[in-house]
Amino acid sequence: MQTTLRAPITFQGQGLHSGRPAKMTVRPAGAHHGIWFRRTDILVGDTLVPARWDAVERSPLCTRIRNGVGVEVSTIEHVMAALAGCGIHNALIEIDGPEVPILDGSAAPFVRGFLTRGLRMLNAPVVAIQVLTGVEVHTDQGWARLTPSDGLVMDFHIAFDDAAIGTQDRRLDLRNGAFVRELCDSRTFCRLSEVEEMRANGLALGGTYENAVVVDGDAVLSPGGLRHADEAVRHKMLDALGDLALAGAPILGHFTGHKAGHSMTNLLLHELFRADGAYRLVECDSAQRARLPGVGAQLDEMPAVA
């Protein structure tokens, strides 16, 4: 059945790119509500923004959504990944500014909060998006693909010149709470050489060594080093799950990303919904539901570092 939170939970911090303080409360919602954001700092007009693939304003460094009158919320990918990875289908997210708080740079604080509050079953079945034929998109930087699978499986490849990252590959079947165990604590990362350029362009103003992994050549500059030897590719997979969650329903399919990022994953969803016969909506039976991300997620399985 569909789920929501048992009780509201509030997170406070600062936006990674804006540097502005942010307070965000995730509230329970009824069946078929989906995930919506509401800007509480805007008092007039339409303040609701749908967490949906066709509301995305493409941005290379984060995922930003906008409603029809121009109200925006950005850097939503980590909280969206946490919702999907915990199996939460319905929520209203109230936020007092334009950017989700970055917290520690991963999805772990959100996951811990959600699993501590607990989930409530709703009187409606889960509807999933079953991929029927392969769809693929390419850019100058890489490519992304969705092919049929009986659950959500993810393959990801990255390659960076900095030896601290280098070339990394990982494959993960996301059933049985795998997101909570394997991905949720992996933090966003950047190269030191990119920081000044980002800040000159009004980005990463809230970034610190505590909420991002910063590398320079073969050195990891953030205190404590890496949480995983392949933390970078794990974080890319975390981002991809959050961006795929904007499909509006869980996906039964095999995602492959080759140097893929936020914009490319969104392009892939556009292609999935554009292509004739590429998918169908299925009302999940118990066997299908058991293969969805979040089912079986347990608080005591979170990595200790998080």
Automatic annotation (TrEMBL):
Catalyzed reaction equations: a UDP-3-O-[(3R)-3-hydroxyacyl]-N-acetyl-alpha-D-glucosamine + H2O = a UDP-3-O-[(3R)-3-hydroxyacyl]-alpha-D-glucosamine + acetate
SUPFAM superfamilies referenced in this protein's UniProt entry, alphabetically: Ribosomal protein S5 domain 2-like
Active site per UniProt: 262 (proton donor)
Domain of life (superkingdom): Bacteria
GO MF assignments: UDP-3-O-acyl-N-acetylglucosamine deacetylase activity
Keywords assigned by UniProt, alphabetized: Hydrolase, Lipid A biosynthesis, Lipid biosynthesis, Lipid metabolism, Metal-binding, Zinc
Gene3D superfamilies in the record: lpxc deacetylase, domain 1, lpxc deacetylase, domain 2
Associated pathway: Glycolipid biosynthesis; lipid IV(A) biosynthesis; lipid IV(A) from (3R)-3-hydroxytetradecanoyl-[acyl-carrier-protein] and UDP-N-acetyl-alpha-D-glucosamine: step 2/6
EC id: 3.5.1.108
Binding-site residues, Zn(2+): 78, 235, 239
Cofactor(s) essential for the protein: Zn(2+)
Alphabetized InterPro entries for the sequence: Ribosomal_Su5_D2-typ_SF, UDP-acyl_GlcNac_deAcase, UDP-acyl_GlcNac_deAcase_C, UDP-acyl_N-AcGlcN_deAcase_N
Function text: Catalyzes the hydrolysis of UDP-3-O-myristoyl-N-acetylglucosamine to form UDP-3-O-myristoylglucosamine and acetate, the committed step in lipid A biosynthesis.
Family: Belongs to the LpxC family.
Name of the protein: UDP-3-O-acyl-N-acetylglucosamine deacetylase
